[in-house]
Design goal:
Length: 379
């Protein structure tokens, strides 16, 4: 009797386990991944194409200077090198790009990756200057820029001529980085990145917590919009939408937008969720000379920059709230950058500006007394 009862219990337990496993399989929780449909890690994608690497005319000296100025970079203007020589980083980057047929945007992303050189606003230490681009051995900052372009060109030529870099990186062939990540480069340009820096980086699963690796290049390349083919006319914003709150990785989608005036009742679309998303808008807009008030209204977090200077910083969860900041601008184009994130609930992002009104009274006397005869502003 006890034996039959025990067997009955065991039978029900086994049946229960089998049913549970079947339910999990049907739900997809235990189904084996389909290699054909699995998403490739970013480091195994063509995040840098060969055509992009070799587009050495993508920016001239003035455009490089404007780009660096938009981040108020220390390297935007002539500076003194560690050997006492004065040099102009934008000019050196442009000249080096042409000499070695390497995209100046790649040089700029490398500058940011190695020393935060694009976003650094103060002079680095002499030691940082000597290793500005992480290139071989200490030298001057200008020699570091040249060395970086020279090495990237050498790796690309090695891959073109022999199919491999000297250190063994090849397109389509798995190789393990020095921090333990197996990478299969999709392009010669990507293989060259890992030849230059044989570390994937902790954000890509590297086993050395203090090493940023090639991820830092990818992050800079994406952050600056260098890999994005979407270009927008003056007076528009390049809008990058992310399916997270931290503007991390590559945008889910990008498009040109004429204004920032949103009170979303749901998803912005194109695969971005109703909540937990973020947006970065960047655009150049024409302003008349004068004093302006910039107005931002947001639910949740928002930040606004003008020509690289942060003027509104309200990066927090909040109900719809309005912020204002004043700025004096010269006549011409100025860069406006806005970052926004939505946590949950309502989602509002609205940014604009207004110019202070100017009155120019004309009097029919020398003492400016009484009421003005009429108003007329003159240049």
């Amino acid at each position: 009797m006890r034996t039959k009862f025990t067997k009955s219990i065991l039978r029900h337990i086994v049946i229960g386990i089998v049913l549970s496993v079947l339910n999990l399989l049907l739900a997809g929780n235990l189904m084996p991944a389909n290699p054909a449909s699995a998403q490739q890690p970013v480091y195994n994608t063509a995040f840098l194409t060969d055509a992009q690497l070799e587009n050495y005319n993508s920016m001239n000296t003035d455009q490089i200077r404007t780009f660096l100025s938009s981040y108020n970079s220390y390297f935007r203007q002539p500076i003194q090198d560690v050997d006492g020589q004065t040099f102009d980083p934008p000019a050196v980057i442009a000249q080096t790009a042409i000499q070695y047929r390497v995209n100046p945007k790649v040089i700029l992303a490398t500058l940011e990756k190695e020393s935060n050189g694009v976003t650094r606003t103060t002079r680095p230490s002499d030691n940082t200057m000597r290793f500005l681009m992480g290139c071989v051995s200490p030298s001057t900052a200008r020699q570091q820029i040249t060395c970086a372009a020279e090495r990237l060109r050498a790796y690309h030529d090695q891959l073109t001529n022999t199919g491999s870099t000297v250190s063994g990186w090849q397109v389509g062939v798995p190789k393990t980085t020095q921090d333990g990540v197996t990478v299969t480069p999709a392009t010669k340009a990507v293989a060259g990145q890992f030849a230059y820096t044989p570390y994937a980086g902790v954000r890509w699963g590297g086993n050395q917590p203090s090493v940023g690796g090639v991820f830092l290049f990818y992050h800079a390349w994406s952050r600056f919009g260098f890999g994005n083919s979407t270009s927008c006319a003056a007076g528009q914003y390049r809008a990058e939408y992310y399916n997270d709150r931290s503007l991390s990785g590559s945008p889910t989608f990008t498009r040109c937008e004429g204004s920032i005036n949103y009170d979303w009742g749901g998803s912005p679309g194109n695969g971005v969720g109703d909540d937990n998303f973020s947006v970065r808008w960047t655009g150049r807009h024409y302003f008349r000379k004068g004093n302006y008030t910039f107005i931002a209204r947001a639910d949740d977090g928002i930040r606004v920059w003008v020509d690289g200077s942060l003027i509104i910083d309200a990066w927090r969860d909040q109900a719809p709230t309005e912020y204002r900041a004043k700025r004096s601008l010269s006549a011409g184009e100025h860069e406006i950058k806005v970052e926004f994130y939505e946590n949950s609930g309502g989602a509002v992002a609205q940014v604009g500006w207004e110019q202070a009104s100017i009155t120019c009274p004309i009097y029919r006397n020398r003492s400016l007394s009484g009421s003005p005869t009429f108003m007329q502003c003159e240049n």
